[in-house]
């Protein structure tokens, strides 16, 4: 992101594919015709992957709006360039904040829930760093 590289998959193409179900593989059986489900008392490892994909969509919006201005925009007034656009810095910050608030407790960096399991703790740290 620092160098403004575009995403490898376009926003339209990425959003055409639904996010994966947040159900661990041991709760999905290949021969059952019914719906697979994650037990309520057990957080899923797949939630990390799904939430990462949501974060990447927001990061792609950041790349598109801040690093790739349209041709008619003139960066003469840097304030107008960043704050009076269709997708402002505040809207991007709001999207990141909403994403953080929707994280389940086991993936929140500051949650005691994430420190109970070392794998969930590692996932929470990775999401925070990203």
Description:
By secondary structure, this protein is mostly helical. The protein has a domain at 47-67 and 76-130. 46% of the residues lie in helices and 0% in strands. Helix 2 packs antiparallel against helix 4.
List its traits:
mainly alpha
Tally of alpha and pi helices:
5
Structural class: mainly alpha
Q: What is the straight-line distance between the termini?
A: 11 Å
Proportion in β-strands: under 5%
Q: What helical percentage do the residues reach?
A: 40-55%
In short:
The protein has 130 residues and is an all-alpha fold. Helix content is 46%, strand content 0%.
Topology at a glance:
Layout: H1 11-16, H2 46-67, H3 78-83, H4 89-102, H5 118-129
Helix pairs in contact: 2-4
């Amino acid at each position: 992101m620092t160098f403004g590289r575009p995403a490898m998959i376009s926003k339209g193409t990425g959003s055409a594919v639904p996010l994966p179900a947040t159900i661990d593989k041991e709760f999905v059986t290949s021969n059952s015709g019914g719906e697979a489900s994650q037990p309520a008392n057990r957080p899923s490892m797949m939630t990390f992957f799904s939430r990462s994909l949501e974060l990447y969509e927001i990061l792609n919006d950041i790349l598109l709006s801040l690093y790739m201005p349209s041709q008619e925009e003139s960066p003469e007034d840097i304030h107008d360039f960043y704050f009076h656009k269709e997708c402002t810095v505040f809207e991007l910050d709001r999207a990141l904040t909403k994403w953080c608030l929707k994280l389940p407790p086991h993936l929140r960096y500051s949650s005691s829930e994430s420190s109970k399991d070392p794998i969930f703790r590692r996932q929470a740290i990775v999401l925070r760093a990203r």
